[in-house]
Amino acid sequence: MISVDGANELVGIATRLDEVRRRIAEAARQAGRAPGSVKLIAVSKGKPAEAIRIAHGAGQLDFGENYAQELSDKAQALGDLPRIVWHAIGRLQRNKAKVVTQVAEVVHALDRAELAVELDRRAASLGRVLRVLVEVNVGGEAAKGGCTPAEVGRLLDATRACANLRPIGLMTIAPYLDDPGAVRPYFAALRALRDEHGGEVELPELSMGMSHDFEVAIAEGATWVRVGTAIFGSRAQGVQ
Ligand SMILES: *Cc1c(COP(=O)(O)O)cnc(C)c1O
Fold it and tell me: Where N6-(pyridoxal phosphate)lysine occurs, residue numbers (predicted)?
């Protein structure tokens, strides 16, 4: 059953998705980049499977989820949707590596070598190669996941040593600041780290930018933006 509020929220999804796409294309154009160089990942945590179905119907293929069980449940409920791609974007406990590896094609929050080893082991047992991004806590915020900038090189080396993991880029969650322009240095820092550790050839993807700041992230080179509330509406309290 979907409540009246829930139903109202579903009605606007396709329209809001179009608006976000338009803003992404415009931000890319302003930055002198091709509109197609930025991929939108629709972050659906805390939202019903029906919301994802609607977005998929409007042409959205990439979806991000934070919680392993929710990701798994939704992937099962939506197994009929062609070409859907699941991104595990949240902090990941080692004991959730199995369920995530079963459904996600990309893990965005690789932040320690033990997790790389476990994901690799699970991917190997499924006979697949998992694409991963190293999450960096560029803001140095205690409450956030991610390795320190100084740990990136070692973590990339550990990941490259895993036969069933393929590191494809870096990810960050910028501090939340009222003025989105003020987070620009954090996005620039992630790009600089990428350039220091192999550049675009080795690490083509920069996963950065959310509803509040994706345009700034695109100006600084984001290739993947993770957008939730601007598409699906605000989340219930407690869903971070
Ligand atoms: C929730 C979340 C998002 C999306 O946030 P919005 O502000 O709703 O766009 C993106 N990335 C991560 C890692 C998240 O946890």
Answer: 45
Exposure of 8 by Cβ count < 10 A (0-12 exposed, 13-18 middle, 19+ buried)? Answer: exposed
Distance 226 CA to ligand 1 centre (A): 6
Q: How much is the mean pLDDT over the chain?
A: 95
DSSP type of residue 75: H
Instruction: List, for the chain, all residue ranges whose pLDDT scores fall below the cut of 50.
Output: none
47 ligand 1 Cβ < 6 A: no
Q: Give the atom of ligand 1 at the shortest distance from the alpha carbon of 90.
A: 13
239 located within any domain: no
The pLDDT, as a whole number, for residue 236 is 82
Global pTM reads: 0.95
The CB of 164 under 6 Å from ligand 1? The reply is no
Cα 210 to averaged position of ligand 1 atoms, centre (Å): 6
Atom of ligand 1 nearest to the CA of 43: 4
Taking the C-alpha atoms of residue 48 and residue 208, their distance in angstroms, rounded to an integer, is: 24
What confidence score (pLDDT) does residue 235 get? 87
Domain that residue 34 falls in: 4-230
| Of 66, 67, 135, 138, best ligand 1 pocket probe by most atoms within 8 Å of the beta carbon | 66
Q: Decide: 46 in ligand 1 pocket, CB within 6 A.
A: no
Q: Is residue 236 part of a domain?
A: no
Q: Report yes or no on 238 lying in a domain.
A: no
